[in-house]
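The authors assume throughout that readers already know how a fold can be written as discrete tokens. For illustration, here is how one protein appears when written out as sequence plus structure tokens.
>
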Amino acid sequence: MIRRAKIKSLAKINLDLRVLHKRPDGFHELRTVFQTISLADTIDIEYEPARRTNISIDDPLAIPGNLVVKAAQAVLDALKLHARVHFRLRKKIPMGGGLGGGSSNAAAVLMALPVLAGGQVSPEVAAELGSDVPFFLTGGTAVGIGRGTEVYEIPDLKPEPILLVLPGLHVATGPAYKELDSYMGRGLTADDSSSRINEFQAFVRVLATGRSAKAASPFSANDFEAVVFREFPQLQTIERKLSKFGASEGRPGVRMTGSGSTIFAVFGSRTERDRAEAVLKRDRVFGKYLVMPGTLVNRGSYQRLWRRQLRQHMGADQSLWPPQSRYAK
């Protein structure tokens, strides 16, 4: 019997991102706050037991090394199953903008495919697929440390309205790290990073106390902005433009997400957000950029979405997380 599911795979933003010393494994030590947002890709999944494994994907963008396929193979390997698995991927999360679309797609497969197949997969598989993938197994608001794969939930935020501005620039993550190392004089040691860790912890405290990304924004930072804005000054222009909006609710909180190039603004109301969107779309310069409205999605809403998506395939106790399969032996 073929089992099917239609999945919404949500994007993320980084409300704060600090790049610290380089680790012995070659990666940088990070401190970040992840936040799921309403922008989403759609993945249709078909699963059917078979004697031989065949994984296929209908992907109009023909993404090289698509993480959807890699995640599916990882699930089947972990469950020691052979199956025919077919995906249809419809992308709305722009690629290369720091919104985590590929990581979200991979996490979506790690959560949905085991439910369809009747098994469970260790969360450790997520970290092997990418640094942002483990976060999408929980959603909401969470602190990421290490490579970003070590994730800790913090209190959910208000579902504040946001505006994303995507200028269509691709910022390569590897070169951005090298530029940041040069700019900040690395060789920094773990001890040298302590003051910036303290600043990050202060931001997290304000965020957790006020439950508002907009209110906490003055305490936030993204270390990549210093070097990425220098290479792409139009991104700083976007940030400054967005920062000037706001009236009765005050100025929005504005940051770049990840290593770029998406700039986001968190507003106090939908009215203020919609007004800013209308102004930008009429602007001669900004009108050529992709401007997308959305909202912050808290952990409760994220997990309810997943339960709705997989309800017909879930077991009797639908309060369990991650979702459990009704087909489990």
In short: DSSP finds ten helices and ten strands in the chain.
